[in-house]
Amino acid sequence: MNEKIDMHSLLLMHYSISLTNGTEIESSFGDEPVEIGMGSGVLTEGMELALYGLETGDRQTLMLTPEQGFGLRDEDNIHMMPISDFPDDLKPESGLVFEFETSNREDILGTVLSVKADKAEVDFNHPLAGQPLVFTVEILAINNAHATITNQ
After folding, report:
1. Are 98 and 83 within 8 A, CB to CB?
2. The dihedral of CA 106, 71, 25, 12: what is its sign?
3. How far is CA 127 from CA 3, 13, 96, 97, in A?
4. Quick one: 133 exposed, middle or buried, by C-beta within 10 A (0-12, 13-18, 19+)?
5. CA distance 132 to 129
6. pTM of the full predicted structure?
7. Dmax over Cα atoms in the chain, in whole Å?
8. CA-CA distance, 113 to 31, in Å (whole number)?
9. Which comes out higher in pLDDT, residue 102 or 137?
10. Is-contact 113 93, C-beta < 8 A?
11. Type and span of the H or E element at 71
């Protein structure tokens, strides 16, 4: 009996994420396969839901809604920031993407939307937020053994 992907599976797989117009965002096809633990946060919840029940050898292409992908755009994630918050050697310009450190020391990407006088308007939404995506996977191996917990 073939193992099926469940919430504890460790997967060896290829995947690609594309926009609906065919523009490829990222892909492991033609490169090394990736190892992903279900529930690890590497994939969005919607992407993981698309994998449940698949078996080794399965290949699937799905259209994901923005909610299943990287979420909807949130206007509350757009902030005005002083130019002084940017590195001295990088002048903020519209379209540039910067990595910022949050107050709890997490890195977050922000895209400069506009620059006005001494402030920059920065969008902290994921760059793919609000976009429907095409998600293609090929399952190469499934390991459910590590999910077994024994009491001794």
Report:
1. no
2. positive
3. 35, 24, 12, 10
4. buried
5. 9
6. 0.78
7. 66
8. 34
9. 137
10. no
11. none
Question: Quick one: pLDDT band at residue 152, thresholds 50, 70, 90?
Answer: very low
* Residues sharing a CB contact under 8 Å with residue 5, sequence separation 6 or more, in sequence order: 11, 38, 51, 52, 53, 54, 55, 139, 142
32 token code pair:
């090394």
Measured CA to CA, the distance from residue 107 to residue 101 in angstroms comes to 5
Give the separation between CA 112 and CA 121, rounded to whole angstroms: 6
Q: How does DSSP assign 74-137, residue by residue?
A: -GGGEEEEEGGGS-TT----TT-EEEEE-TTS-EEEEEEEEEETTEEEEE-S-TTTT--EEEEE
Cα(68)–Cα(142) distance, rounded to whole angstroms? 23
Average pLDDT over residues 36-62: 94
Q: Facing residues of 17 across strands?
A: 26, 135
What domains lie within the chain, and their CATH numbers?
Answer: 10-71+128-147 (3.10.50.40), 75-123 (2.40.10.330)
Burial of 1 (0-12, 13-18, 19+ CB in 10 A): exposed
